[in-house]
Structures are given as structure tokens and as C-alpha cells.
Design goal:
By secondary structure, this protein is of the alpha+beta class. The strands form three sheets. Strands 3-2-1-6-5-4 form a six-stranded antiparallel β-sheet, sandwiched between helices. Helix 7 runs antiparallel to helix 8 and helix 8 packs across helix 12. 46% of the residues lie in helices and 19% in strands.
Length: 437
């Protein structure tokens, strides 16, 4: 008998089938040992698919095992999730048993092997005490059966190899137990690799599922936010109409506060929508020449009613006319976010200082408050999406980490940067550095 498996057949199974056909009643123990080695080589050469199902690889392992000991049927019981089932089979009746569940609590040979990790070698099914068996005695007549646990290197059970219908004569009968034991390590290697590939595929599948869920959630969020934007736009338009009516000083103050809240809510909604577009690189800034002095004065006027309510003074520290190339709408919302935060955390009677400092080819826009400041541990993470500082403002509002994440994105699309540091008056000082052109 050739010792090299490649000389016997084009596939692992065909090689073993050819080797078995060369045996005779006069075959020596050395011939049977060679057959065992060929079967072991064949199992190790079984190709494992790149993606599940792995049934074809296990079927080849079953067929090689069946041919080795001249059995009628061979099957592999493996774990599928939390259950055990026949993962693959070959030979007589294979299609009927493949996929069958195995209950370890039921008195069956496979269940016994799963629980005890002990093998059954060449026992007649009808002679095994207390085990559930097929009542068709003609089916069991002359059968020789084995169920062998397949263990990994750590001693964990990988599966159970079943072989049934082995004839009681023939050359292979003399060394069957040794032959089967000789291929168990090869089967364990293959089952381990199959399990690893299945695990990797499941992890990848789970990741893709989570990505899809996240995308669906974000899509629904954006749809909801878009609807909220339309509602807020309608509210803001009607508040503007009310402001044009002579309703008295007290009513005008209330309308002004409501409009400020509506405007800030609309800014937040637009920030969420624009943040999504920036992450997807779909936002195209509308660059124009922006007069920073005029922009800061507009913001001071916009926040005046809120500043009066919070008893905080807005202080503009501006040089002579300073211009910058920017998207005015995005830049206004960036600065409005910083001013809103500054007022929330400023004590009564303090001031929020807004300044623009030319730095050669760039300009530093700063918003400084006199609150508690930002700890060094949070000075980087505070700009992450949904990473708030855990503090509530004086008005009771919670910082959820949307506005500052938006500010970081706006600075980035302008080719600039943003950071926070301790200001000269002990509070937080946010600095936005942007190129002038």
C-alpha cells in the first residue's frame, strides 16, 4: 500500500476509499497501521470553508472515519448554540439523522458520552443497560457500534463521533479501537478550527447586525429631528410675528425669552443634523467673508434677554474690524453654543467675555466665563459626542455633550481647532483657532 496519500486519490475521501480497497483478509497489522496514518492525513487535509455552514468539512471527516473501520453510518454530534445536534453524517441513512437534536438528559449513548466524556467501543446497542434504543431488532442485528468523545487540548468536549453498522469480519476488525484512537487528535484539530471559524463569522455577523441597528436608529433619529426642526421653525416664525405687535413690556420680555429658547432648540436640532452630515462628509460649508465684530454684536443682542434673566453681563473684547473666511451660519451656531454654556455655568453678577485675537494667519475666538471651569481630565473628552461634563447649569439644564461635539466638527471643517483651558479669572475659557483665509 502506498504510504503517501497523494498517490491514492485526488481528494482525502477518495484516498482513504482507495486504501481500503487494497486491503484483504491477508493484510498485515502494518498494512492496517498504514491505513490509519492515511486516514489521519486525510482528515488533516480536509478543507474548511471560509464561511458557514461547515457541514461539508464535517461530512468528509465522517466519511473517512466510516471507511477506516468499515462502518455503515458515521456521524458527528456537535454543539450548536446551547444544544447538541448531529452536525453531519455519512453513509446509510445519513440524510435522516443529520440535524437531529441530542438531549444529554435522555438515556442515550450520545447523551451518556456527552455527560461522562467516556467512550463506548463496539457495544451492541441492545446490550447497553438502561439506554433508549430502536425497537427494530432487525436494524440492530449484527451491528457493532461506537461513540467516542472528541476532546480539545484543554479537555473540553468538542463533539461525539458515532460509527454504526461495522461488520464483524474483515481485516480491519483486528485493530479497530487503535485505528479510531489514532484519528481522534486529527478530528479534534479540525473541529477546533471549525469552531474558531464559526465563532469569527458569528462575531462578524453580530458586528454587522449591530451596525445595521445603529444605522436604523440614526436614520429614525434624523427623521425625528427633521420633523422637530420644522415644528420649531413654525414656532419661531410666529414668535417673530408676536414681537412685531405692541403687547406691552412684560409680554415682550416673555416672548423674547420664549423666542430665545426656541432659537436655541432650533440651533441644537440643526447641530444634530449637520453633525450627521459632517460625519458622512456630506456637508459643504458656504464660505464667505465674515465680519467678526458684526457677528459678535449680533450674538450679544441675541443673548441679551437671556443674560438679563441669568443676571450675567456679556462683555465684548474686540479689536478693530476683523474679517475671516467662514460659513457664517455654522460659525454663529458654534459661538452661540459656547456662549450658552458659559451663561449656564456663570454665577450671578459675573461676566461672559467674548474676544477675537488675531494670530498672524489665524484668529483665536475665545469665550470665557467665571464658573467652576473644566477639570484637566475632561478637557479633551468633553468634545466627544454625547460626552457631557455631568454638571447641571444654573437653569437646571443638563449638558449632554451634543453642542461641544458640534463645535469641534465646525472647527474641523474650517481647517481649525478648538480646546478648553482655565481662564485668567478661574473659569473655563474655550478657544477656537481658525485660519483667516
Amino acid at each position: 500500500m502506498p504510504g503517501d496519500i497523494a498517490e491514492l486519490g485526488p481528494t482525502p475521501v477518495e484516498s482513504v476509499r482507495k486504501a481500503v480497497s487494497l486491503l484483504s483478509d491477508k493484510s498485515t497489522d502494518n498494512d492496517l497501521a498504514q491505513l490509519k496514518d492515511i486516514a489521519r492525513q486525510a482528515i488533516l487535509q480536509v478543507q474548511i470553508p471560509h464561511i458557514p455552514p461547515m457541514k461539508s468539512a464535517m461530512e468528509q471527516i465522517c466519511e473517512v472515519s466510516r471507511l477506516l473501520v468499515n462502518g455503515a453510518t458515521s456521524s458527528l454530534v456537535v454543539r450548536q448554540g446551547s444544544a447538541w445536534e448531529v452536525g453531519a453524517a455519512s453513509g446509510e441513512g445519513a440524510e435522516k439523522i443529520c440535524g437531529m437534536r441530542v438531549d444529554p438528559d435522555r438515556k442515550s449513548v450520545a447523551g451518556y458520552v456527552i455527560n461522562t466524556h467516556k467512550p463506548y467501543f463496539f457495544s451492541s446497542i441492545g446490550n447497553i443497560p438502561d439506554l433508549a434504543v430502536n425497537e427494530n431488532r432487525s436494524r440492530r442485528f449484527g451491528d457493532s457500534f461506537c461513540a467516542i468523545p472528541i476532546m480539545d487540548q484543554s479537555g473540553a468536549l468538542l463533539g461525539v463521533l458515532n460509527i454504526a453498522g461495522m461488520i464483524q469480519d474483515g481485516a480491519a476488525q483486528r485493530t479497530r479501537q487503535e485505528s479510531i484512537k489514532g484519528i481522534l487528535d486529527a478530528i479534534a484539530i479540525k473541529l477546533t478550527k471549525i469552531r474558531e471559524k464559526e465563532s469569527l463569522f458569528l462575531v462578524g455577523d453580530d458586528i454587522e447586525s449591530l451596525k445595521q441597528v445603529a444605522m436604523d436608529k440614526e436614520k429614525m433619529l434624523m427623521m425625528s429631528v427633521h420633523d422637530i426642526k420644522n415644528t420649531l421653525s413654525l414656532i419661531t416664525a410666529n414668535l417673530y410675528y408676536l414681537q412685531q405687535m405692541n403687547l406691552g413690556e412684560e409680554a415682550e420680555e416673555i416672548i423674547g425669552l420664549v423666542k430665545f429658547g426656541s432659537d436655541r432648540s432650533l440651533d441644537l436640532v440643526l447641530s444634530i443634523l449637520d453633525s450627521g452630515m459632517m460625519r458622512d462628509q456630506k456637508l459643504r460649508p458656504n464660505f464667505s467673508t465674515v465680519d467678526l465684530n458684526e457677528l459678535f454684536e449680533c450674538l450679544a443682542n441675541e443673548f441679551s434677554v437671556y443674560a438679563t434673566r441669568m443676571e450675567v453681563q456679556i462683555i465684548l473684547d474686540l479689536p478693530e474690524r476683523t474679517y475671516i473666511r467662514a460659513d457664517r451660519g455654522l460659525l454663529r451656531r458654534l459661538l452661540a453654543n459656547l456662549m450658552d454654556n458659559a451663561m449656564k455655568y456663570s454665577p450671578k453678577g459675573s461676566g461672559v467675555i467674548i474676544s477675537a485675537v488675531p494670530m498672524g494667519e489665524s484668529v483665536d475666538l475665545t469665550v470665557e466665563d467665571q464658573g467652576k471651569g473644566v477639570s484637566k481630565q475632561q478637557q479633551e473628552s468633553i468634545f466627544n459626542f454625547l460626552q457631557g461634563n455631568g454638571q447641571k447649569g444654573r437653569d437646571g439644564a443638563q449638558n449632554y455633550g451634543i453642542g461641544l461635539a458640534f463645535c469641534k466638527m465646525v472647527a474641523w471643517v474650517h481647517g481649525g481647532s478648538i480646546w478648553v483651558e482655565q481662564g485668567p479669572r478661574g473659569g473655563a475659557q474655550f478657544v477656537v483657532r481658525l485660519p483667516r483665509d
